[in-house]
Amino acid sequence: MTRRVSVLASSAARLLPLRVKSVLDVGAGTGEMAIALQQYRSSLALSGVDVLVRPNTLIPVQAYDGYHLPLASKSIDAVMLIDVLHHCDDPLQVLQECLRVAREGVLIKDHVANNRLQHLVLAFMDWVGNRAHHIALPNNYWSSQQWQEALRDSGAEIKSRVDNLPLYPAPLLWAFGRRLHNFWWIECKASGSNHE
């Protein structure tokens, strides 16, 4: 595993409640992240969806339109969104779809850009990491306030988080870390479970 995948998988395993048995990876790509998570949580049943299904994925990945998940409401324990929402044309709609199909909650790793410099740094990082894969780069980075509003409008709240994600070695961590990366476990306020 690359350093990034290893750090994200171990963080996801800590955030994901033990009651979760099935996970849908939205924007699954090759399935590398899901397989890495399964190394920490071997009992998880994993599947994925993506707007561009790649050949030879590591988990079953189904095509979807980027807006409507092809699952019934509350049909899977958890949904995982790893660096996906900022690539979406309508991130709020995608978030709400994920909350619709999840029984327990949604695991989100994404960015926060509270000023122009942070936005530019994230746009550069996305361009470097994704230009070769033909991934859409609308650079929809939300500020802290936009994240709070999106969660409120979706009827969700953060239940747990990992704030320190050492994705890069020093000195890259200073330039490209600095609270730009956030990892949350969120649940619907009305239907979030209180059991472990």
Automatic annotation (TrEMBL):
GO terms assigned for molecular function: methyltransferase activity
InterPro entries cross-referenced by the UniProt entry: SAM-dependent_MTases_sf
Name this polypeptide is given: Class I SAM-dependent methyltransferase
Keywords from the named record: Methyltransferase, Transferase
UniProt KW Transmembrane helix keyword: no
GO biological process: methylation
Upper classification of the organism: Bacteria, Pseudomonadati, Pseudomonadota, Gammaproteobacteria, Moraxellales
UniProt keyword Cell inner membrane present: no
Record organism: Paraperlucidibaca wandonensis
Coiled-coil region list: none
